[in-house]
Amino acid sequence: MNTKNKGNLAKILCILIGVAMLAVDMFAFVGCTKNSESTLSPTPTEAVVDNKPNTDVATNTGAAPETGTETGSQTGSETVTTGGEDVDTLYPVNACESIFGTRLCENFADDFYVGTCVSYSLTQNETATKVIVEQFNSVTCENEMKPDHLLDKTASKLNGEITVKFPNDTVSMLNWAKDHNLKMRGHTMVWYSQTPNWIFYEDFDTSKSLVSREVMLERMESIIRQEFEYVQENYPDMFYAWDVCNEVIADEGGLRDCLWKQTIGDDYIEQAFTFARKYCGDIKLFINDYNCYVGNKRTTLLSVVKDLAEKGLIDGVGMQSHLDVGYPSVGLYTATMKMFAAFGVEVQITEMDITTDNKTEKGLNVQGQMYGDIMKQVVDWDRDGTVDCTSVTIWGLYDKISWRSSQVPTLFDNIMLPKPAYNALMEITKG
Ligand code: XIL
């Protein structure tokens, strides 16, 4: 056998071993239940894709995708079946060509944190942990710090006051982040979605009436205080930013209708930031939203941010950035970022993913180009002072576990190998 053949054989063996190891890892993933039932019992059927919302929540199932229409419906619960053949056809990979040794976050070390979102099961996986720790220096809990995860109904009823409890899976994730020296974004406190209805009712009982403004303000302050106090006591300096309010602007502009607004009134956003400012310590306060660049929604968001910034209640705007290769244009997206920056606040890209229906090599290159073009502009503006970008988070470590997995929106493919999008970001060199 000549050297070339030996090399090919080694590559094939390497790919087979890699796929087998990943399969074993996947099988070892454990799911977990929410809050009060915070047992960590293995639930192999929830393996890998554990990113579905809980059903015991206020309204919907997460944000609408940013499809270019203002009224898209969300498809976050789709899963992808990845037979080995598909993966090989779609993403011809050389598993021996390891990314280990190159670090994405290192490339932007002087500019901003580079993060990914994580689920509990991901943090239990050795391969994923290795990739995360090597490539990123910031993480966001994908679901495990949302209101439906931290607000404990049983304890609240028992105590007669709203009670925050960080359940075992969340605590495990925070310990994991601490052990690996990862910084964290807090996500999220005041949101219309993935929030239990019972927090808005008398005696935490949805068969009774909605509480008064005064009571809801007390509950709001208490939630915000308890969350900040818990992390400051147990994980000092780990959290650098927090989405105090998430998705508070309606798709058509104006404030989104929700139970927070119904119980407290139109000033509930300002109230939330006022409480947050009181308890946040050094943690920066963010308002976070999707479709920030769309028509009336942008107009409202700009005026809310301006007002909060003038009152010194906000530190930055989180542009979720669930994009598609077809929309928005890089120009529209970045111009919007510049508008927020003009108020003197930080900007963070908090949940970036770019969907594509074209999974051919060409399609993935187009996706990579868009990732690269946006990041190049952000880096340039960050360096010349036009925009103070302090963090960029990709929403999903790799395509298979993304909430929009069928449209392969992340930097790593279904078997966690780097895509053109990853390479495009790595190519942005220091200027
Ligand atoms: C998504 C998660 O990725 C999914 O696992 C979950 O099923 C729904 O929520 N905007 C947000 C994020 O602020 O919290 C959402 O995350 C995506 C849209």
Q: What topology does this entry show?
A:
Layout: H1 3-28, H2 84-90, H3 104-107, E1 113-118, H4 120-123, H5 126-135, E2 138-141, H6 147-150, H7 153-159, H8 168-179, E3 183-191, H9 213-234, E4 239-246, H10 259-264, H11 268-279, E5 284-289, H12 295-310, E6 316-319, E7 322-324, H13 330-341, E8 346-355, H14 361-384, E9 389-394, H15 420-426
Helix pairs in contact: 9-11, 14-15
Bound molecules: (3S,4R)-3-hydroxy-2-oxopiperidin-4-yl beta-D-xylopyranoside.
Structure in words:
- This protein is α/β, with parallel strands linked by helices and 431 residues long.
- It has 2 domains: 39 residues; 383 residues, Glycosidases (TIM Barrel), CATH 3.20.20.80.
- The chain is 40% helix and 13% strand.
- The chain is built from 15 helices and 9 strands.
- It has an 8-stranded parallel barrel, surrounded by 5 helices.
- Helix 13 links the parallel strand 7 and strand 8.
- Helix 9 packs parallel to helix 11.
- The longest helix has 26 residues.
- The chain starts with a helix and ends in a 5-residue tail after the last helix.
- About 20% of the residues have low confidence.
- The structure holds (3S,4R)-3-hydroxy-2-oxopiperidin-4-yl beta-D-xylopyranoside (XIL).
- (3S,4R)-3-hydroxy-2-oxopiperidin-4-yl beta-D-xylopyranoside binds next to loops.
Keywords:
binds (3S,4R)-3-hydroxy-2-oxopiperidin-4-yl beta-D-xylopyranoside, alpha/beta, single chain, 431 residues, TIM Barrel, 2 domains, 15 helices
CATH architecture of the largest domain: Alpha-Beta Barrel
Report mean pLDDT, rounded to a whole number: 83
Bound molecules: (3S,4R)-3-hydroxy-2-oxopiperidin-4-yl beta-D-xylopyranoside
Number of helices: 15
Please compute the radius of gyration using only Cα atoms: 22 Å
Q: Major β-sheet, in short?
A: 8 strands, parallel, barrel
- Report the CATH topology name of the largest domain: TIM Barrel
Q: Strand percentage, roughly?
A: 5-15%
CATH level 1 name of the largest domain: Alpha Beta
Overall tally of structural domains: 2
Spans of at least 5 consecutive residues with low confidence: 13-98
End-to-end distance: 47 Å
- Fraction of residues in H or I helices: 40-55%
Secondary-structure element series: HHHEHHEHHHEHEHHEHEEHEHEH
Shape from CA axes? globular
Secondary-structure class: alpha/beta
